């Protein structure tokens, strides 16, 4: 067992490195361009707002209005768990009191977050959840104050026109008006920032460091990237590669921090979002995994099965937690999202292990019909993976898909020269499937004899049916012989093999009887048939006692 676990872990690491190396190859072909914006760092106001709901509405309007009206203006909200701030703390680049008194260290925080300006913003008047007056103070690069309210300065025709890209059919909301005015004020105060230094930062030569990571020299790559980041701290690709280097070393937290920094600098950097999904799953950070997968889906019509699987797993785990905490609506929405992702997964994937994980989640999420459809694809369309045998049998048992399980066992026997070895639990599943097939054959022979005696079947029809049963009985016997019984079921399985053999002989005698119509032949066949059936029942009872 330890060797098997080691093999599984090695396989996971190999799959992980394969994903990372794929990203390297893409980066070697093309270096994605970053959409450079002037980032404004929003600090918390020194006093509480007049209405927290109105404050939230204003903060939500800022990125929307600024992006559509000003284009190059973006926001970054100050918070202690920011990847950039965490990295600066780790490297000792942030004063101890910067997190409790950000106003005195606004310039350092701007440098860390890649922002060109820093300000705080507060709603000073509100009607319910709607802001009516605001104030702001810029701290970097200049010290300046701004105030405006709708009572004294109602919205103008020019402002309505400026906001038409944001709200083309309905009048702009107060928070949109304030976001527009604040953006215009920022441009007036910092014209040089908006007019200069908006060019794409120089792209460092990444081929050498990519080669280091591809060769498994992660430590050297980390050192080289750290030097490059010191020279080009705002280049997202450097943080992406640093995250990949840390991921290659299985330093999950460090990798996660760098990937998050990369998407903070370039929100559409898909390789970084994929890195977040992979690494966060290693730390059971399912909220981050699902966020990353959602971002990937927004940018790609066809998402790789690996990330569909991560997203479905994350949504399933988050749904379970939400159920436990009584958040039923949220749990149901997450469950539906997991089902959607797993459906896409089993329809598009060709890796049995990924699809089998979808089967297990779909069953757990109460969609057995989809789980059975996915299991059918594994058993009938894909190459066999012997490492999945017991999980496949278990899911077939849960889904009551005995025919699928029988088909799977036959494929397994046909492709393996060695006997099929199973755990006690999986062996019991397998023999239940075999015996279920045997019972069907026993019943078919009994019913056909009754029909033939009642002249409902012609001689040719009876012979044809017996030949079909005989072929199936021979297949059943070969399959049963290919399965190696574990202790304590060796003796009972030997009885089972004897019963199957006697039943095969009985069907052979019945075919002779149909052709020759000798009563003795039929009596011999019936004796064998009844003895085989009785012995099989006795074997079942003995196995029940052993369990």
Task: Please name the defining characteristics of this protein.
547 residues, alpha/beta, five-stranded mixed sheet, two-stranded parallel sheet, 23 helices, 67% helix
Short description:
With 547 residues, this protein is α/β, with parallel strands linked by helices. The chain contains 23 helices and seven strands.
Write the layout of secondary structure elements.
Layout: H1 2-29, E1 38-43, H2 52-70, E2 73-77, H3 83-90, H4 106-113, E3 117-127, E4 130-140, E5 144-149, H5 157-162, H6 174-189, H7 191-195, H8 207-214, H9 218-231, H10 236-248, H11 252-265, H12 270-282, H13 286-299, H14 305-324, H15 328-348, H16 352-364, H17 368-381, H18 389-398, H19 402-415, E6 420-421, H20 424-453, H21 459-482, E7 483-484, H22 490-516, H23 519-546
Parallel strand pairs: 1-2, 1-3, 6-7
Antiparallel strand pairs: 3-4, 4-5
Helix pairs in contact: 1-10, 2-6, 3-11, 8-9, 9-10, 10-11, 10-12, 11-12, 12-13, 12-14, 13-14, 14-15, 14-16, 15-16, 16-17, 17-19, 18-19, 19-20, 20-21, 21-22, 22-23
Radius of gyration: 34 Å
Assign an overall shape. Answer: elongated
**Could you tell me the mean pLDDT?**
88
Assembly state (oligomeric) = single chain
Percentage beta strand: 5-15%
Q: Which stretches are poorly predicted, pLDDT < 50 over at least 5 residues?
A: 1-10, 24-35, 196-200
Termini, distance in Å? 23 Å
Helix content: 55-70%
How many helical stretches? Answer: 23
The spatial strand order of the largest sheet comes to 2-1-3-4-5
Helix/strand/pairing category: alpha/beta
What's the main sheet like?
5 strands, mixed
